[in-house]
Amino acid sequence: MSFQTLEFLLFFPAVFLLHWSLPHRFRWPLLLLASWLFYFWWAPWAGLLLVGTTLVSWLCALGVHGQRGRVRRFCLLTALAVPLGCLALFKYAGFFASIAGAQLSLRLILPVGISFYTFQTLSYVLDVYRGKTEPERHFGYYALFVSFFPQLVAGPIERPEHLLPQLRRERRFSVRDLSSGGWLLLTGYFKKLVVADLLAPLVDRVYAGPGAALGPQIAAATVLFGIQIYCDFSGYTDIARGAAKLLGIDLMENFHAPYSARTIRDFWRRWHISLTSWFTDYVYIPLGGSRRGTARRCLNIMAVFLLSGLWHGADWTFVLWGGVHGLYQIGGILYERCCPARLPDGRWTAALQRLRTFALVTFAWVFFRAETVADALTLLSRLGTGWTTLPALLGAAAPALLPPLLMLVCLSRLDRLPPGTQGRDAARDMTVFSCLLAIGLGWWISLASSGTNAFIYFQF
C-alpha cells in the first residue's frame, strides 16, 4: 500500500476516525494492526520478516539491559547480526556475489523499507546497550515503534527517545494538529504528484539513452533529477509527518531546504537528516570522529559516505555517489586548513556559495541516477557536446519545461508559508487553493498517462 494509491485514501481516513473514537488504551492495538496491515498488503512474507526482526531485537534488548558478561555480548551480537544478516541477504547478496565472480541462482525480492526499519531497530538496541535509553518492556509499544505505518517504508528513521514516549502518552484531538497535519499532507502530495511525477519522464528520456544525449540535455535532465528526487523524497516525508500529526504524533523533520546550503557539509545537515544523524552517531563517532587528527578524520568521513552510498543501493553507482560526496567533504576540510581566511559575508557571496554547492551536488546525482557506471561515464563524457544547438533545444523544450517551472514557483510558496505563520492567512488561503487545483490537474495528468510513479526511496 502506497500513499498515492486509492487503497491508502480509503485506509487512512478509517484509521483516523477509529483512532480518535477509541479510548487511549485501545489506540496502540489499532495502530499496530493498521501498521501491520499496511505492510502485509505488499507481501505477507515480508510482513513476517518485519515481525520476526521486531521480536528478536526486542528480546535481545531486554537481555542486553538485564544481563552481564558473555550473555550480554551474545544478546548484542544477535540483535545486530539478525537484522543486518537479513538486510545483507536480501539487498547485497547478488552484489557481493558478483564481486566474487559468482552468480546467484535464486533472485531475492527486496522487502520494502528493510533498510529503514533495520536501522531503527539497530539504533534502539545500541542505545539500550550504551545506557542511553531504557528498554521498552511492552512488546506492543515496541512493535508499533518499529512498524508505525506513516514512516515504516521510507523514514524518517526515528529514535526511541523521540517516538516511544509519544506512542505511550495519551493524546488529545487538536484542531491545530488537524491544520498542521493537513498542510503537510497537502504539500507532500503536491511535491510528489505535481512536481516529481511530471519531471520523471523528462529525466528518464535522457538517462535511458546516454549515448545519444547532448550536453545541454544531460545538464538539464540532471538538474531536473535533483529537483525530482527532492520533491519525491521530501514529499513522502511530508505525507508521513502529516499523517502522523493527524494521529497526534510528531515525526522528526527530514529535510530543511537542502538546496539553499552554502557548503556540502551544510547540505548534509539539511538532506535526509535522520540518516545523516544515524551515521554520525553510530558509525562516525565510534570510529573516532574528528578527535584523532585530520588524516583519521578524513578516513572516517570517507568510510561513512561509502557506507551511505551502499545503504542506498547494491550497485557501484551508489558507492561512487557516496565516494564523490566523501571527497567533497574531505576537500572542504583540507581547504579550511590551507586557506583559513574566509570570503567577506554578503548576499553575493552567499548566492555564489549556494550555486557552487548546488552544482557539486548535481554533478554527483549523475552517478546516483545512471543505471550503470558505464552509463554515468558516458553521460559525463558527453557533457561538452551539442552546446551550439542550445537555442534550438530550448525552443523545442520550452513547452515541456514551462509546467515544472511554474510548479517550482508554487513549491517555493509552500516552503515560505508553514502552518501557523502569523499575518499571512490570505496569502496562505490563496496558496492552498492554487495547490489543490494543481494537485487535481497533476493527478489527472498522471492517471491519464501510465499511472503514478512509486516513491524513489521505496527501492532502498
Describe the structure.
It is a single chain. With about 450 residues, the protein is mainly α. The chain has two domains: about 5-170, no CATH class; about 175-460, no CATH class. About 70% of the residues lie in helices and about 0% in strands. The model is unreliable at about 420-425 (pLDDT under 50).
Task: Name some characteristics of this structure.
460 residues, mainly alpha
Order of helices and strands: HHHHHHHHHHHHHHHHH
Largest sheet: none
Please indicate the count of domains.
2
The value of Rg in angstroms is 23 Å
**Roughly how many Å apart are the termini?**
16 Å
Number of strands: 0
Number of helices: 17
The low-confidence runs, each spanning 5 or more residues with pLDDT under 50, are 419-423
Mean pLDDT comes to 86
The share of residues in helices is over 70%
Which structural class should the secondary elements be placed in? mainly alpha
Give the amount of beta strand, in percent: under 5%
Shape: globular
Quick summary of this structure?
Belongs to the membrane-bound acyltransferase family. The chain is 71% helix and 0% strand. It is mainly α and 460 residues long.
SSE layout and pairings?
Elements: H1 6-21, H2 27-40, H3 44-66, H4 69-99, H5 114-130, H6 139-147, H7 160-168, H8 175-207, H9 215-246, H10 264-270, H11 273-284, H12 294-312, H13 316-338, H14 347-369, H15 373-381, H16 390-416, H17 425-448
Helix pairs in contact: 1-2, 2-6, 3-4, 3-5, 3-6, 4-5, 6-7, 8-9, 8-16, 8-17, 9-14, 11-12, 12-13, 13-14, 16-17
